[in-house]
Protein: HMA domain-containing protein
Organism: Clostridium sartagoforme AAU1
Amino acid sequence: MKSVLKIANLNTNKDVINIREAISHNEGVVACEINLDKQEVNVVYDDKSIRVDEIAISIEEAGYSVI
């Protein structure tokens, strides 16, 4: 499954690193691509292992706002 998440406060390369780290701790995430200009995260995941809302929660727990 593939989803796109908009992140309100994604502004710097440090934010990209923090979000990538938060996402990578989830079992079932296959890949993620973070676009700083568009403030978007494209994530590919196994929907039998994890739901997109669980990925969004992990991003929010890292201090970011998922729109």
